[in-house]
Specification:
The protein is α+β, with helices and mostly antiparallel strands and 375 residues long. Helices cover 61% and strands 15% of the residues. Helix 5 packs antiparallel against helix 6. The chain is elongated, with a radius of gyration of 39 Å.
Length: 375
């Protein structure tokens, strides 16, 4: 009877204590969050309930499983103890990653709610994201090392490996040169403020928004919703355009190739009308000038300002569409045209045609062709 009750008491008690601790922690965090709604930390920490319960349950079972005198437990006591230890280490690492992520995310949320500089908020967001990934990587490496050291064979091997740690470090550094380069490049991007999450960039002729930055790669979402994944080392070793650095305001241009008779003054008045009606124009500046000429056309440049790159694109499209429609309707002569005509054939005198080289040969072939047709 004792062999049956003891496992039930140990396992059931561990589960009951785990459920109670999880419920109590969640209730306490919910009460604190209700009293301090300005701090999102307490609500974020509620996401740690599951890893907390797994850690507590595993720790209780690890400390009390050897009190079970059942034959199945006694015969596999070492294996069960090692398995519970591995689960406990993994659950503790999971709990640490969740808790650190909640703390970092809470700090960022409070900063973003009080900050007024969007560029600085994006910079902090980039740094916070990379800090979370660094913490997760460090905790994962430590947990994996601790799990390996639970095996006696690994502890024996570890003693001999310390003697050759220098050689292994050099070999690993050479083998992982690219990975380490991307790792340090990611840290340089995070704290060097070269590019941030949400920045509008142009890389390899592609225009897009930085969507994700990790320790090894960077993802850019293009205007047509494609994703370009690039190593972060590219942004530390290659030139690229960052349209969000130093402010989001942009100046857009539209070029028109028109006839020399184009009404420039009337086009200026029409451009003023277009930009004043466009919600994408920020009201700072606009202009229209002739920037170049050719024997057949002139180049007219319309310049307009906008709040950001998206509005600059929108107002440029509006100007291009409405100006071409207005010119085609009101001033069609201003649009460029290519005039073509058939070339005039020179009429040669009969004597000149007869004396032209090759004329006798042509007459011979013509008479031969007539004779062939008659036959």
């Amino acid at each position: 009877m004792e062999d049956v009750l003891r496992p039930v008491i140990v396992i059931g008690g561990s589960l009951a204590i785990t459920v109670f601790i999880g419920w109590g922690a969640d209730w306490l965090l919910r009460r604190i969050d209700a009293r301090h709604p300005e701090t999102p930390l307490w609500d974020l920490l509620r996401g740690c309930r599951l890893p907390l319960q797994v850690t507590v349950c595993t720790a209780l079972l690890r400390g009390s499983y050897d009190t079970i005198k059942a034959q199945a437990i006694t015969s596999h006591q070492t294996a069960i103890g090692r398995l519970l230890t591995l689960v406990l280490i993994a659950a503790t690492a999971w709990l640490a990653i969740r808790a650190s992520g909640a703390i970092v995310e809470s700090s960022y949320s409070r900063y973003a709610a009080s900050a007024h500089d969007a560029a600085r908020v994006r910079r902090v967001r980039t740094q916070v994201t990379l800090i979370q990934r660094v913490v997760a990587a460090v905790v994962g490496v430590v947990a994996a090392s601790a799990m390996l050291l639970t095996f006696p064979a690994m502890r024996t091997v570890g003693t001999s490996m310390l003697a050759s740690a220098g050689i292994l470090g050099i070999v690993a550094g050479v083998a992982a040169q690219s990975t380490l380069g991307n790792l340090f490049a990611g840290l340089q991007i995070a704290f060097g403020d070269m590019v941030r999450i949400g920045d509008t960039v142009v890389v390899n002729g592609e225009w897009g928004t930085v969507e994700e930055i990790t320790l090894t790669f960077l993802s850019v979402r293009t205007w047509d919703e494609r994703r370009i994944t690039m190593p972060v080392s590219y942004f530390t070793g290659q030139p690229f355009e960052n349209w969000s650095r130093g402010g989001t305001q942009k100046t857009g241009t539209v070029f028109f190739h028109l006839d020399h008779h184009a009404p420039i003054e009337e086009m200026r008045a029409k451009l003023r009308e277009i930009v004043q009606k466009s919600p994408a124009w920020d009201g700072r500046d606009w202009s229209l000038v002739v920037t170049d000429t050719s024997p057949s056309t002139i180049v007219v440049r319309a310049l307009v300002t906008a709040r950001d790159s998206d509005d600059a694109w929108t107002v440029r499209c509006d100007i291009r569409e409405q100006m071409i429609t207005w010119l085609r309707t009101e001033h069609p002569y201003a649009l460029p045209r290519i005039t073509t005509a058939p070339a005039a054939q020179a009429q040669l005198p009969a004597t000149a045609a007869a004396s032209r080289p090759g004329s006798r040969r042509e007459d011979h072939f013509a008479r031969f062709d007539d004779g062939f047709r008659k036959s």
